[in-house]
């Protein structure tokens, strides 16, 4: 089932965060040093972050800079220019705006740093909680529950295979099919593979044992 992790890491994320406006820190959260006092943003400036954004990756992050994690360089006091990452804020809902505190409900594309959004508003994250990854919500979490592979790719369209088709897929051969993008290929209640369709054929990409 670890073979399916690649299909989960790229899913959209849902966060709840409280931002302390007016103070930027070196790490984008409350643990860093204060580096700048900033003016309060307006509601319009906050909402302007909804959509596609390009923001620098936080210095205290796991991104590698010339082969070394950025947070390790930051801890040693080595200043480096951080790369800019393009991401999408699909939804930005203001839950509470009582300066200097701002609470946001966010749905963002994979790879979005909420600390970068806070920094863009001239503040830093006080609290941050991830509440969903794709269709998987924290309120549905159960430590005792192990999802079957088919349930782990529920976000993709599904294509039920005949016995003959399942044999073809297991040998890595494509099938005719109208699906476009990722598609779950299953037989009964068993996931056989995840494939990619181009509108005419479905090519198996990850075949499960």
Written account of the structure:
By secondary structure, the chain is of the alpha+beta class. It is 17% helix and 44% strand. The chain has a 6-stranded antiparallel beta sheet. The protein has a 5-stranded mixed beta sheet with strand order 11-13-14-15-12, with helices on one face. Strand 14 and strand 15 form a beta hairpin. The protein starts with a helix and ends with a strand. The mean pLDDT is 92.
What's the short story on this structure?
By secondary structure, the protein is of the alpha+beta class. Helix content is 17%, strand content 44%.
Keywords:
209 residues, alpha+beta, Pseudouridine synthase, Archaeosine Trna-guanine Transglycosylase, Chain: A, domain 4, six-stranded antiparallel beta sheet, five-stranded mixed beta sheet, 15 strands, 44% strand, elongated
Q: What is the overall silhouette?
A: elongated
Proportion of helical residues: 10-25%
Mean pLDDT: 92
The H-level CATH homologous superfamily of the largest domain, spelled out, is: Pseudouridine synthase
Which residues form runs of ≥5 with pLDDT under 50?
none
Ordered list of secondary-structure elements with their pairings:
Blueprint: H1 5-9, E1 13-21, E2 23-25, E3 34-37, H2 43-47, E4 51-56, E5 64-65, E6 68-69, H3 70-75, E7 84-98, E8 101-108, H4 114-120, E9 123-133, E10 136-137, H5 149-152, E11 158-160, H6 163-170, E12 175-176, E13 180-187, E14 190-198, E15 201-207
Parallel strand pairs: 11-13
Antiparallel strand pairs: 1-8, 1-9, 2-3, 4-7, 5-6, 7-8, 9-10, 12-15, 13-14, 14-15
